[in-house]
């Protein structure tokens, strides 16, 4: 906090009669402004991360005494079948959730026109993102209902079904991911619509004169210019996939037979729900999830750091 | 402009496009439309198996009236409002200050603190869950709205700092230098020079945070329990278990729960999208 901004005349020579605060104003002010935000963030976010690491080394029911058991929680994870299922479901989420990016781009390209009422269409296409995931979950679980659901009514027209997507352990996870893709695609769409607005029309014209058309134009001229939008779409989609909790909790509550659990949901179950309060074991699951996320966070921060360097 | 503007294409494709648009929209919103139809149907349609035919009577007022006057729903809605609004105010206030500090001043650790805010904003909620719950219990705030508000303010400050700092970075720096040369105190520069320029950023953040917090479910079930403090996202599950299999009421209930952020979005669309797409263009 000693680096004084050079833009300011440094008058703090000897014989300065102003008070200490006035003399060090530029150095002190940022810390005063940061203090409340930093304090909140430290107590509720930064410190808890380390506490979770610590708790994961204990056996603790959340009320009584915690017993130190070293890495025993992690050893138990290695042989825990439910953990394995959750882990692989997370992988499925991560992979399939990325479909939101091309789908969002597709819809954005479809809607990037100027016809009457297009603004309303764009907002209505974006609609699913604004609704809470809880309601999205409810809407889709009713949509999938074997008897009352619209999906099966629709399949029935073609003489197919009925299928009970959420009741079938092999399909349930995919059913939930499809529900999650709905708002996520809307989010990516809006990112790309904004990106398409900023595409340089001269470059497009020039490419057109050179005979670029259709998917060649898209791949070589448009998509490179959409790079910032794509980066953000990646960040929010990956974070969204690893954070998936609401939909699972609402649509299947982990079932049938635990087949739709993911790490975030399994952790909650272990620590707070039906299995009783195994805080230490839950924390160990959270640590694993955190470490997976950390790989992506590190990559995002590194990319941002590069941009910062360029901007300087 | 890509793809080729529709005005420049053949008349036939223009007409086709205009026809596809509404169809695509209906298909896209189909699950939601289904719920809307459910919510105006009478009870009898479900017992008779008339799920997708015409509603035998139009029960909009009856169904929604039940939600509003005969259930805990209004309480949950009020809780949501009481949780969301202070969070929005608190987060915006804190992040204006942190954003100002990180965007205007050069000091050691500036970038480090900035990246700490960003990284914290990306962590999985579960790594915070056990300690934050304990902390809230220690503060005697478990199952209170205040406990939930304090956590939300702290967590959202991460994202908002990122947003505000980048916004302030893009403001013309000579403005601040000029004020300094005039001998204006730093806090006055914040209040009289920078703050007036931040109005669009504040509006964008306010709508975004409103939506995020209104839609939060995880922290609501971790930090609160009953109808005294639970917001509507958590309350809707108990509402649904009360009206099990009464799809017309459950549908009406979820539409009511989803409505406030939707209204917010349509009223403040420009700000909402500006906030969400920050950084999508350079």
Automatic annotation (TrEMBL), chain A:
Q: Does Transmembrane show up as a keyword for this record?
A: yes
Q: Which family does it belong to?
A: Belongs to the binding-protein-dependent transport system permease family.
Q: Which Gene3D superfamilies match?
A: MetI-like
Its record classes its membrane topology as:
Multi-pass membrane protein
Task: Work out whether the entry's keyword set contains Magnesium.
Answer: no
Q: Say which domain of life the source belongs to.
A: Bacteria
Listed name of the protein: ABC transporter permease
Q: Where would you find the membrane-spanning parts of this chain? A: 31-50, 93-112, 124-144, 174-197, 217-240, 280-302
Give the species.
Answer: Jannaschia pagri
| Cell compartment(s), UniProt | Cell membrane
UniProtKB/TrEMBL annotation, chain B:
User: Where is this chain primarily localised?
Assistant: membrane
ABC transmembrane type-1 domain sequence ranges = 77-268
Q: Which SUPFAM superfamilies match?
A: MetI-like
- UniProt entry keywords in alphabetical sequence: Cell inner membrane, Cell membrane, Membrane, Transmembrane, Transmembrane helix, Transport
Question: What PROSITE patterns does this protein's entry cite?
Answer: ABC_TM1 (PS50928)
- Spans through the membrane: 20-40, 76-104, 111-129, 149-168, 189-214, 245-267
Task: Describe the protein's quaternary organization and the partners it interacts with.
Answer: The complex is composed of two ATP-binding proteins (UgpC), two transmembrane proteins (UgpA and UgpE) and a solute-binding protein (UgpB).
Q: What does this protein do?
A: Part of the ABC transporter complex UgpBAEC involved in sn-glycerol-3-phosphate (G3P) import. Probably responsible for the translocation of the substrate across the membrane.
Name of the protein: sn-glycerol-3-phosphate transport system permease protein UgpE
């Amino acid at each position: 906090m000693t680096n004084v901004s050079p833009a300011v005349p440094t008058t703090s020579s000897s014989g300065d009669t102003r008070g200490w605060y006035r003399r060090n104003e530029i150095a002190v002010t940022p810390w005063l402004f940061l203090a409340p935000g930093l304090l909140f963030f430290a107590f509720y976010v930064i410190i808890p991360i380390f506490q979770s690491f610590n708790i994961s080394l204990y056996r603790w029911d959340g009320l009584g005494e915690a017993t130190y058991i070293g890495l025993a929680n992690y050893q138990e994870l290695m042989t825990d079948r439910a953990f394995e299922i959750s882990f692989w479901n997370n992988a499925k989420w991560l992979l399939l959730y990325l479909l939101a990016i091309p789908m969002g781009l597709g819809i954005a390209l479809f809607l990037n026109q100027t016809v009457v009422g297009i603004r309303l269409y764009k907002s209505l296409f974006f609609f699913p993102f604004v609704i809470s995931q809880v309601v999205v979950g409810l809407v889709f679980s009713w949509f999938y209902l074997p008897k009352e659901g619209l999906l099966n009514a629709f399949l029935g027209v073609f003489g197919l079904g009925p299928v009970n997507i959420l009741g079938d352990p092999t399909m349930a996870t995919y059913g939930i991911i499809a529900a999650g893709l709905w708002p996520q695609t809307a989010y990516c769409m809006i990112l790309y619509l904004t990106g398409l607005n900023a595409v340089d029309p001269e470059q497009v014209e020039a490419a057109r004169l050179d005979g670029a058309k259709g998917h060649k134009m898209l791949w070589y001229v448009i998509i490179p210019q959409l790079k910032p939008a794509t980066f953000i779409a990646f960040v929010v989609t990956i974070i969204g996939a690893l954070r998936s909790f609401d939909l699972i909790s609402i649509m299947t509550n982990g079932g049938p037979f635990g087949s739709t659990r993911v790490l975030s949901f399994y952790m909650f179950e272990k620590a707070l729900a039906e299995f009783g309060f195994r805080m230490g074991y839950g924390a160990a699951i959270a640590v694993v999830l955190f470490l997976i996320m950390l790989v992506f966070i590190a990559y995002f921060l590194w990319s941002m750091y590069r941009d910062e360097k360029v901007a300087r | 402009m890509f793809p080729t503007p529709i005005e420049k294409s053949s008349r036939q494709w223009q007409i086709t496009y205009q026809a596809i648009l509404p169809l695509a929209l209906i298909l896209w919103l189909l699950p939601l439309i289904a719920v809307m139809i459910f919510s105006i149907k009478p009870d009898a349609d479900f017992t008779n198996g008339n799920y997708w035919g015409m509603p035998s009577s139009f029960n909009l007022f009856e169904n929604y009236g039940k939600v509003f006057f005969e259930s805990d729903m209004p309480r949950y809605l009020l809780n949501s409002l009481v949780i969301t609004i202070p969070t929005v105010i608190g987060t915006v206030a804190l992040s204006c200050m942190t954003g100002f500090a990180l965007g205007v001043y050069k000091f050691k650790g500036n970038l480090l603190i900035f990246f700490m805010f960003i990284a914290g904003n990306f962590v999985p909620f579960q790594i915070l869950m056990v300690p934050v719950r304990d902390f809230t219990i220690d503060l005697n705030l478990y199952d209170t709205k205040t406990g939930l508000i304090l956590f939300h303010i702290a967590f959202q400050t991460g994202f908002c700092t990122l947003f505000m700092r980048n916004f302030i970075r893009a403001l013309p720096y000579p403005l601040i230098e000029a004020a300094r040369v005039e001998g204006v105190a730093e806090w006055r520069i914040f209040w009289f020079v920078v703050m007036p320029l931040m109005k669009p950023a504040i509006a964008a953040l306010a709508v975004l945070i409103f939506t995020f917090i209104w839609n939060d479910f995880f922290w609501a079930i971790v930090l609160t329990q009953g109808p005294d403090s639970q917001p509507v996202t958590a309350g809707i599950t108990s509402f649904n278990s009360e009206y099990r299999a009464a799809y017309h009421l459950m549908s009406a209930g979820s539409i009511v729960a989803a409505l406030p952020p939707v209204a917010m979005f349509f009223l403040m669309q420009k700000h909402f999208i500006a906030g969400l797409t920050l950084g999508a263009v350079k």
